[in-house]
Write a structure and sequence with these properties.
Layout (H helix, E strand, L loop, with lengths): L1 E5 L8 E5 L9 E11 L1 H7 L18 E9 L11 E5 L9 E5 L4 E2 L6 H7 L2 H12 L6 E4 L5 H12 L3 E6 L2 H9 L4 E4 L5 H9 L4 E6 L3 H10 E9 L12 H7 L2 E3 L8 H16 L7 E5 L4 H9 L6 E4 L2
Parallel strand pairs: 8-9, 8-11, 9-10, 11-12, 12-13, 14-15
Antiparallel strand pairs: 1-2, 3-4, 3-6, 3-15, 4-5, 5-7
């Protein structure tokens, strides 16, 4: 089978596609024939050698955290009825960038008949995260919501969920293409957060004294500026870090303004909870209530290009590999 390996930590050029032996399912495992593999910014960071204190993966390895496809075979102790079924599953930190992936049977989630496998793959990580963040934010009719990185995989879902709750949604993104994508998803206004006055424009767009809810998927200085847009008594979710780490908020200032601040702990799920949220995300998509924004797809041979586009912040929405 074909697979992509990280030969050493480094830039996109360390991603090399080639032939590797077919996989076999061990006890409690299945082999999935991969139709689509999710590409996360986390994959990019681990490939560069970051977060070694959290992940034990070392080169050479096959990256990729989530796949969708059909079960090809099952291992000892697994119901043979899974064979041939359309499924989505998380693989851990590695194994997804290939024509086949070995997955623990407990991670398998059936894909509804009304949903294509590409969409299922695009929802495996961002779907559960967006649902949990939306639930925790308690967004109601008339709320003023600011969504940062609204044209990213998760931000696109947050825009849809906030609009479905009856909120006024202001999106931020970088560049006209991403701003237009956010507006097409239902945002009431969109602001380029790479421009110097973006925070003032965002405050004006949300109206009133600021945003009741800020969903910060960027972090760094951008996130700090977004905190200033949060209304007194509002809620600020600091769950994103691609802009230079999670947003640092002075707890005394937050208390003075009555702002409730939450962080990445909101989306650190136990396996049963993660599986339940994946099932919910797939059901919501099958019913037409949410849809992932898949901006670009690549074959395995162009995985290095996919990573390069993401590192350059050129990707819109989700990026998928299609083996």
């Amino acid at each position: 089978m074909r697979a992509v390996r990280v030969e050493r930590f480094g830039g996109p050029e360390v991603l090399v596609a080639g032939e590797v032996p077919d996989l076999a399912a061990g006890p409690g495992q299945v082999v999935v024939g991969v139709r689509a593999a999710d590409v996360l910014f986390l994959d990019v960071q681990v490939r560069r050698g970051l977060f070694g204190e959290h992940f034990t993966v070392r080169p050479p390895y096959v990256p990729g955290c989530a796949v969708a496809g059909r079960v090809l075979s099952v291992g000892e102790g697994v119901d043979p009825g899974w064979t041939g079924r359309r499924v989505a599953a998380r693989t851990g930190v590695q194994g997804g960038y290939a024509e086949q992936a070995v997955v623990p049977a407990g991670e398998l989630v059936p894909v509804p008949d009304a949903l294509d496998l590409d969409t299922a793959a695009a929802l495996l990580h961002d779907g559960p995260t967006a649902l949990a963040l939306s639930d925790n934010a308690r967004i109601g009719p008339g709320a003023r919501v600011l969504v940062l990185a609204a044209a990213g995989g998760m931000g696109a879902l947050l825009v849809q969920l906030a609009k479905a709750s009856g909120a006024r949604v202001v999106a931020t993104a970088r560049g006209r293409r991403k701003l237009d994508a956010a507006l097409a998803l239902g945002a009431d206004a969109a602001v380029d957060h790479s421009e110097p006055d973006w925070a003032d424009r965002a405050r004006e767009a949300v109206g009133g004294a600021g945003a009741d809810v800020v969903l910060d998927g960027v972090g760094g200085e951008t996130g700090r500026a977004a905190f200033e847009v949060t209304a007194s008594g509002g809620r600020f979710s600091a769950h994103g870090a691609p802009g230079g780490g999670f947003t640092a908020v002075d707890p005394d200032e937050a208390e003075r303004r009555g702002v409730t601040v939450t962080g990445i702990e909101q989306v650190q799920f136990a396996q049963p909870d993660a599986r339940r949220l994946v099932e919910r995300a797939l059901a919501e998509a099958a019913a037409g209530r949410i849809r992932p924004l898949v901006g670009q797809t690549f074959p395995l041979e162009r995985t290095a290009e996919a990573h390069a586009v993401m590192e350059a912040r050129g990707a819109v929405g989700k990026t998928l590999l299609l083996p």
